Amino acid sequence: MKLSLRSHLAKTGICGKCPPMWKFIAFASLLASAAPFSRPAVAASSPWAAGTGVKVRLVTSGGPDAEGRVKGALSIELAPGWKTYWRDPGDAGVPPRIDFSDSRNVSSVDVAYPAPHRFSDEGGIWAGYKKPVRFGLTLKATDPSKPMELDAKVFIGVCQSICVPFQAQLAVDPGKDADDLTDAATVAETFAALPAAPREDFNAIEAKKTPAALSVSATLPKPNAAAELFVAAPEGYSFGPPKRIGSESGKVAFSVPVLAGDIAAGAPRIPYTLVLQGGQAVAGDL
Question: What's this model's pTM, rounded to 2 decimal places?
Answer without folding.
Answer: 0.85
